Amino acid sequence: AQKITQTQPGMFVQEKEAVTLDCTYDTSDPSYGLFWYKQPSSGEMIFLIYQGSYDQQNATEGRYSLNFQKARKSANLVISASQLGDSAMYFCAMRRGSSNTGKLIFGQGTTLQVKP
Amino acid sequence: GAGVSQSPSNKVTEKGKDVELRCDPISGHTALYWYRQSLGQGLEFLIYFQGNSAPDKSGLPSDRFSAERTGGSVSTLTIQRTQQEDSAVYLCASSLRSNEQFFGPGTRLTVL
User: Fold this and answer.
1) Chain B residues touching residue A109 (CB < 8 angstroms)
2) Which residue in A31, B53, B74, B101 has a CA-CA distance of 20 to 30 Å to B29?
3) In whole angstroms, how large is the CA radius of gyration of chain B?
4) Below-50 pLDDT ranges, chain B
């Protein structure tokens, strides 16, 4: 069975510093996708970044990068130069298979608070 | 363009009543998903529609839950004989060919 584990219920970071949010996953499928979503207090789900299991390079999107370590089954999100608007809940998720559609399995989330 | 919309935004019901939650996906999106988020928790997959294929119902927690997607567009999630543990935010998402699932604002269901 697939499983996503986020071990950090809450994190603090100083504004302008970098922060890493941890995510480990468990799957026996050779092909899968890994996602990070942001959920501000407003409740909307905002897609941040995607990494395919066969992608050779770590995904990057602006200030977001995904530190993909396949052998360790980890997919940590790195946010550089934190901003106050980054304060939110962050969810790691996984989708099995190589198709670009399919259900997501989510972790429990990490609450990030950025301090001014 | 218009995003995913859901109605109602809030629903308060009494235990034992049936409720219907509606999702309007982004026009042209062939995939539609329902998730549930309990307070302070991650999202739990409920059901997934892809085009004309049989839906993936593997996440529905009991036979009180059902969903339909009419004409490949609008979807309705129905919960029969609601229980207090059904209280949650119900989120709908849609996608086409990209990896990104576009989420709606959710329906907050409270069962008294």
Assistant:
1) 41-42
2) A31
3) 13
4) none
